[in-house]
Specification:
One of its GO terms (biological process) is nitrate assimilation. With about 700 residues, this protein is of the alpha/beta class. It contains 24 helices and 28 strands. Bound molecules: iron/sulfur cluster.
Length: about 700
């Protein structure tokens, strides 16, 4: 490489670990990527996806210019078309006839402007995000238990825990740097224990002392049994529970039927001895962190699963202190930032509640807006149902590919075909979703855009521009703001830079400190452009007048929660099986997830040759006993089918898969491998509280192709 002329510190755009990236840009434009040695999320380490980021910076496949009906147009023409069609639709059919569907890939500034536009000015809460598919159950569980969507702990807790319980998380592949952090802690302190709770054996089991391969959907029974065990063996922290919690009696009553190990074994399919080992370790280990991810969240009982886990930490008082606590790790790079600005259809900015009149008044007052949405909008799955049946007539999709990623993906495709007006903002020209757009808006990609993201430990970090935007690509917040201006709200959408949006977001979070609860970064409301440019990673909150270089590492150490009575709530949880049930026709559970070296629908990671060397094609992992019974040879083609769709993929026959279940990755689409859109096989079943789809428990038939 030629001499470095610029070093830019930025953030990886993939998983919610939020690793700091050091990009060295040479005079000839070549970019060299390494980990930022000073970033507290990764201290210089990057996984293979992050390390390959430079390979994704080219313009191959990029959407370079705005288009209407497939023809290149100017930005002015495209923005005029979006604004006039949205205005006409709202005028004729009302605010709820339009919607935005955004993404955990966009920056906090993009999310902020999208929410302000929809909730404060259009007057509809029909804005939801693909983060609904990722962590909505954790949001709902946090709010039930803590009174707010607060992640209590931080990554340092993984370093100092004596027991790490991983549940529903193949951390080794999906959050590799967090996995390496736990592995390093375990290497340094061999007495540290790791339990991995997952229906299948994964790479994460390389560091596990105990694998619990439970029946799909039986997590609530396992953690209810743990609650009963902890209570029955004297592990309740009586002082903490008495002073700082509510709901104990109801939670224990609900768990009572799992006080017996055999009952837990029947419900989970686990050996009583393994359950006893897990319960024994948990009971005996003060410093315990329970890490959970999509295997918990992506369920029709996801919120109850989260609360069943949190209950055990509240009962033992193991929360808010070093090395302990429940810990949701988010799948996407900015799922947390989206939550902070109210990126879900049932939220307001600054973790405020849409259904609270005082919260609505606060936000409307701050925005000086003509209206404020008063009822929750459609959550992701419902939103596309509303498109399908014509209630939503104009939809703007931003940085996501729902034709592949949503459940019932063929119906999503049909819904978009029938929608009178579809706008798609993306960095990529040809996806299964852009193919259905009336208007295409070119967005700045990673390396081009500028703003902030928040990782799983509440750490806000800058994404910074390294290279010039491709073609006429523009920031998503800019496109949204210009549509807002065209709709007549000139001063409310007048920002000219990301720093200005960030300042407004920060100011809103401290507008009424007596009402705002956990999320408050008003200490940055007066940040200069220069200070925004050099902003170092920090954990929120950072309230006005707080000079600390970093926010508190943990919440709830003082036992004060954000519920009306200030107490953390234990929740009575009752096991609910997945909505689908295996049958003679559809005898297999279908589990879905990520592979190590790809991201979502591969629009970026698919550009990096290094990343396709790990797994080059879609596959179905199936137990060797099932393969033998069905006459499926290793590496032969198999059909995975149910009444919704069929995919044809190669069989990966292993002894890691639980008999009666099959695992297929989510990444491959019609654009990169025909017949591998696994979202088409997933039913649109959702958790009643969180609206998160059940993406890990469909039922299918498996047969040789
Ligand atoms: Fe990026 Fe996640 Fe890998 Fe870190 S662990 S480099 S954030 S993909």
């Amino acid at each position: 490489m030629t001499d470095t002329v610029r070093t830019v510190l930025t953030t990886c755009p993939y998983c919610g670990t939020g690793c700091g990236v050091k990009a060295e840009v040479a005079a000839d434009g070549a970019v060299t990527i390494s980990g930022d040695p000073d970033h507290p999320a990764n201290f210089g380490r990057l996984c293979v996806k992050g390390a390959a980021l430079a390979e994704t910076l080219g313009h191959d496949g990029r959407l370079l210019h705005p288009e209407i009906a497939g023809r290149r147009v100017t930005w002015n023409a495209a923005l005029d078309a979006v604004a006039s069609r949205f205005a006409a639709t709202i005028a004729e059919h009302g605010p709820d006839s339009v919607a935005l569907y955004v993404s955990g890939q966009i920056l906090t500034e993009d999310y902020y402007v999208a929410n302000k536009l929809m909730k404060g000015f259009v007057g509809s809460a029909n804005i939801d995000t693909n983060s609904r598919l990722c962590m909505a159950s954790s949001v709902a569980g946090h709010k039930r238990a803590f009174g707010s969507d607060t992640v209590p702990g931080c990554y340092e807790d993984l370093d100092s825990a004596d027991l790490v319980v991983l549940t529903g998380s193949n951390l080794a592949w999906c959050h590799p740097i967090l996995y390496q952090r736990i592995a390093a802690a375990k290497a340094a302190r061999p007495a540290m224990k790791v339990v991995n709770i997952d229906p299948r054996l994964t790479a994460t089991d390389d560091i596990a002392d105990l694998h619990l391969g439970l029946e799909p959907g039986s997590d609530v029974a396992l953690f209810a049994g743990l609650l009963a065990h902890l209570e029955g063996t004297g592990h309740r922290d009586g002082d903490f529970v008495a002073a700082h919690t509510s709901g104990l009696d109801a939670a224990l009553a609900a768990a009572a039927s799992f006080a017996d190990l055999d009952a837990v074994a029947r419900a989970t399919g686990l050996a009583p001895a393994d359950i006893a080992t897990f319960y024994g370790w948990f009971g005996a280990t003060e410093k315990t962190v329970t890490v959970y991810s999509q295997g918990v969240n992506q369920s029709s009982a996801g919120t109850d699963k989260v609360n069943a886990i949190v209950n055990c930490h509240l009962l033992t008082g193991r929360i808010g202190r070093e090395g302990m606590g429940p810990f949701s790790v988010t799948g996407q790079p900015n799922a947390m930032g989206g939550r902070e600005v109210g990126g879900l259809a049932n939220q307001l900015a600054a973790h405020l509640e849409l259904d609270d009149p005082a919260h609505r008044a606060l936000v409307q007052d701050f925005w000086g807006s003509p209206t404020i949405a008063a009822t929750p909008g459609h959550k992701a799955v419902e939103l596309f149902e509303a498109v399908a049946d014509g209630r939503i007539k104009a939809l703007w999709i931003m940085a996501t590919n729902p034709v592949d990623s949503l459940p019932d993906a063929d119906r999503v495709r049909a819904a978009l075909r029938s929608c009178p007006f579809v706008v798609v903002s993306d960095v990529v020209r040809d996806t299964d979703t852009t193919a259905l757009a009336d208007v295409l808006l070119p967005a700045e990609a990673w390396g081009e855009k500028d703003g902030t993201v928040t990782n799983s430990e509440r750490r806000i970090t800058r994404q910074r521009r390294l290279v010039a935007p491709a073609g006429e690509a523009r920031p998503d917040w800019w496109a949204l703001a210009h549509v807002g201006r065209r709709l007549g709200w000139t001063s409310a959408f007048a920002w000219d830079r990301a720093a200005a949006v960030f300042r407004e977001h920060a100011a809103l979070s401290g507008h009424r400190p007596e009402i705002v609860r956990d999320f408050d970064i008003s200490g940055f409301a007066d940040l200069s452009d220069e200070d925004f440019a050099t902003l170092a990673p920090f954990q929120w909150p950072r309230r006005t007048g707080e000079p600390a270089p970093d926010g508190p590492k943990r919440f709830f150490a003082d036992g004060r929660f954000f519920t009306p009575d200030g107490r953390g709530r234990l929740i009575a949880t009752h096991p609910r099986p997945p909505r689908a049930k295996p049958s003679p026709e559809l005898p297999f559970w279908l589990n879905t997830g990520r592979v190590r070296d790809q991201w979502h629908t591969m629009t970026r990671t698919g550009l990096a040759p290094k990343l396709t060397g790990h797994i080059a094609e879609p596959f179905a992992e199936i137990a060797d006993a099932d393969a033998e019974r069905l006459g499926i040879a290793p590496a032969s083609l198999v059909t995975i089918a149910n009444g919704r769709a069929a995919v044809v993929v190669r069989a990966l026959v292993t002894d890691r898969q639980r008999p009666g279940s099959v695992f297929v990755p989510i990444h491959w689409t019609d654009r990169v491998a025909s017949s591998a859109r696994i979202g088409a096989l997933i039913a649109p079943e959702t958790d009643p509280l969180s609206g998160q789809p059940e993406s890990k428990a469909a039922t299918v038939a498996v047969r040789p192709f």
